[in-house]
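Researcher:
Attend to token order:
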Amino acid sequence: MFLILSLVLVIYSLIYYYFRHKFSYWKRRGVETYPARFPFGHLGEFYLNKKSYIEIFTQYYDQSKSEFCGIYQGIDPLLIVKNLEDIKYVLVKNFNCFMNRGVHTDFNSNVVSATLFRIEGDQWRNLRHKLTPAFTSGKLKAMFETINQCCNGLDYALNKAMDPKTGEINVKMLAQRYTVDVISSVGFGVEANCLNDNYASPFFKLSQEILDRTALRTLLIKFQFFGPSYAKILYKFFSDRSKENQQSFFNMINSIVENRQKNKIMRKDFLQLLIELKNHGTIDSSNDSIDNPNVFDKKDSLNFEFDMKTFVSQVFIFYFAGFDTSALTLTMMLYYLAENQDLQKRLRKDINDCLRKHNNKLTYDGVMEMEYLEMLLSETLRLRPVLGHLFRVCNKECYLPSSNLKVDVGTNICIPVYNIQRDEKYFPNPNKFDPERFS
């Protein structure tokens, strides 16, 4: 009995001192930090559904008096960077030291996981090099007419969507149907016709199923932010129906590609660009201007294998990242316009002026000239950013310029986008919707 009690005491002591050492990482480095609790670190209220992720980070952003502060995701240290010079250093000037995003992924079981948001290191660098020509202004301009055709279905959809008694419209659902139509057309050459009440479209059904937040799926999403140490363990014991949906998506895209190649079908869409990349190892960019031509100087990318899993992964992220984020941004912008009818009138005038300038036709160049529309969109994204926080992992030892703080390899970095864009230091009266900030 004494031996058992002694063994338990020793094990308890080892565990206690292990976590105590882990939770002293920031204090040992002289970084502002706060008491952490086992086993969740500083995110306990998030995992227990007491606070949102935004609320947790807002608490520490506001509480911190320095240019950065340190908290813990589980037992993993996370540095919240507030200084704009440091942020530029992480995301732009020295981004080669912060290529990875630190989101745990089971690449063996997830058939659509090989995206730029998840892969790391040289594989990320090479894939980025290969995909850059697919997103030039010339390629986007070539897709504009297809997008324009989808817009024509909005008149019908608006009349059908309005409740005849209240005049209300479910704007979010309308925006989702519109973005499904656009992305299906410019992405895969498929007419989903969701605006024409075609809810049976496989793309629309899959999007609704994958975005359906079941209790288990919500838990799995939280695992991704549980800290790398815990996430790797937890993902081995949990899975959900989304894997079946992802496999269905893989099979559907594979079938479309096989049909195109068998029947020699050519379209001006994202899928065709990926087929070109898969067959020839590159995407033609000879007639396009590249924002950053230096990205094409990487010789190591020539050995990159663009297999079918990587192919479908890019289609998957193109569709689902664009579908939900675009729909939510459009929904919020329409909400702000509904609240501010004076802004509606000015936007309408700006659009009509541009249309008259282009013979009453909606053109790519005309849309690019709609300055007030861009101001409204920028202000919407300031208040409602697509990603409230950006995460990076240090892959090479470096020092933050504002304080010369040493950042160790493996350190998780958080850029609090939501909080910076609502900080009075940068945006006076930050909670007010004011497009003139971007004039």
About this structure: The mean pLDDT is 84. The longest strand covers residues 68-73. Strands lie at 68-73, 76-81, 390-393, 398-400, 405-407, 412-415.
